[in-house]
Specification:
Jelly Rolls, five-stranded antiparallel sheet, 26% strand, disordered N terminus, 8 helices, alpha+beta, 454 residues
Length: 454
């Protein structure tokens, strides 16, 4: 399980070094099969067009190609329009890293097609890969420790990697060679946390610091400041970055989007003149970003294989988990989880019941086989503590089915016969979350089953 770095809202830091062996040589014919049409177009344009005509690299002008074709009087039109012959930049680390990313695209398509059980899972899996690649690009390829910014991991349509649909996630790529300061305002969300991560090693990316809404030291108006420096400022929230530093993952857990105000935060480099130009990109820096993108894409695309896949073989039951089970860089120290798999046919329903612990936040999420919450803004696939009706005895009950049911806490499978269920709880580390129960009943018998809680 610790080999998966992105479950429940994690974007991994890129590996510290590039792979030692180059990927197989590029084959242009690969753009004609396997990849979805849009993905294929992206790869073909990037590889066959944009990557072959750079004019400058590392401040060194590219000399004119003496072998470039020249038009001449009476020459064949096709020859005169051929343009300059492509130069050989294949040895560039960035080109090699892109080739490896291209290979991963086809490989992950094959993974999805092998593991899908229905036509819906296969077709949604193609879109899932596109969204996963897009998120990996947003948070890794576009990250810049010299001029950092918080990149939103989800969008109005994208909730992949086991992300909480009642949450917002941001990630910023950093390094330990610079000093940073984060300034922000808590807003009114139920939970806000900053997980500061070091460089990746054989055990994964370790958490080197963790702050939440209770430990950020905000003033009476909710304003806070967090320093990440090599020398400790007196009397400040401070993370010592003399060891290693790779990224920060920010989680905002929301009880009611219509009522709560999101937190706001920015990051600046302390030892950089904001008016000074940033250094030019280098082959090495672009290659590292591409390697990080590929790593994130592959990890996200295979979560269903690496995070408790055995649950699908024993559906309609839950198990407890926390950061000790997933690895510290997957789950923050005050996040507790109860995870299970569901299986329900079109003429059935699942009655899910649980005690409600005394915690700051909790919600329940329905995910596809690929750990994606499909159509999360428009489909009832998740509920929070602010969006449920409790039973007279204080317990909470949900009904999961293919489409709406009369129960006030109904949930929709999104058209899937099986997938994953995730309860999230935010509370004290020693809290032992309750283990919900699941009953599988016929929809025609649902009313009677709800009258009889046993």
């Amino acid at each position: 399980m610790t080999s998966s770095r992105l479950l429940l809202g994690l974007a991994p830091s890129p590996p510290a070094s590039l792979p030692h062996s180059p990927p197989p040589a590029f084959d242009a014919h690969r753009c004609s099969f396997s990849l979805p049409a849009i993905l294929r177009a992206i790869v073909c344009v990037a590889v066959l067009g944009g990557c072959t005509t750079p004019t400058q690299q590392n401040d060194r002008p590219v000399a004119p190609d003496p072998t470039a074709a020249r038009a001449s009087d009476g020459a064949d039109d096709s020859a005169s329009n051929a343009g300059p012959e492509p130069r050989d930049f294949e040895a560039l680390a960035s080109v090699q890293a892109f080739r490896a990313l291209q290979g991963s695209l086809d490989e992950m398509v094959d993974v999805i097609l092998r593991d899908a059980r229905t036509e819906r899972e296969a077709s949604e899996g193609m879109r899932f890969l596109l969204r996963t690649l897009a998120m990996s690009i947003d948070v890794q390829a576009d990250g810049n420790p010299v001029a950092p910014h918080f990149a939103r991991m989800d969008t109005q349509a994208r909730k992949v990697g086991g992300d909480n649909p009642d949450a917002e996630y941001d990630l910023v790529v950093l390094d330990g060679q610079r000093d940073y300061v984060i300034r922000g305002q808590l807003g009114s969300v139920r939970h806000l946390s900053f997980t500061v991560m070091g460089e990746r090693n054989a055990r994964g990316a370790e958490t080197i610091a963790y702050y939440n809404e209770q430990t950020l030291g905000a003033d009476d108006e909710g304003n806070f400041t967090l320093y990440l420096t090599r020398n400790e400022p007196a009397g400040r929230n401070h993370v010592d970055t003399r060891g290693d530093l790779s990224s920060i993952l920010v989680r905002q857990y929301i009880g009611d989007r219509s009522q709560e105000e999101l937190a706001r935060y920015t990051i600046d480099v302390l030892d950089r003149d904001p008016e000074a130009p940033i250094p030019y990109s280098t082959d090495a820096s672009i290659a590292k970003a591409l390697v990080g993108t590929r790593f994130a894409f592959e990890a996200l695309s295979t979560l269903h294989r690496t995070v408790m896949p055995e649950l699908l073989d024993q559906p309609n039951r839950f198990v407890r988990a926390n950061s000790d089970d997933f690895g510290a860089d997957i789950s923050s120290s005050d996040n507790l989880y109860v995870i299970g798999a569901y299986q329900v046919d079109a003429d059935e329903a699942l009655v899910i019941e649980s005690d409600v612990p005394d915690v700051r936040y909790w919600n329940l999420t329905v995910e596809s086989r690929w750990h994606e919450t499909v159509d999360y803004r428009f489909r009832r696939t998740h509920r929070t503590l602010d969006d449920v009706v409790l039973e007279p005895d204080g317990r909470v009950r949900f009904v999961l089915a293919h489409g709406p049911t009369p129960h006030p806490n109904w949930l929709d499978t999104g058209g899937h016969r099986e997938g994953f269920l995730t309860f999230r709880w935010v509370g004290r580390r020693e809290t032992r979350p309750p283990l919900p129960t699941i009953r599988r009943v016929k929809r025609s018998e649902l009313e009677a089953a709800l009258r009889d809680p046993h």
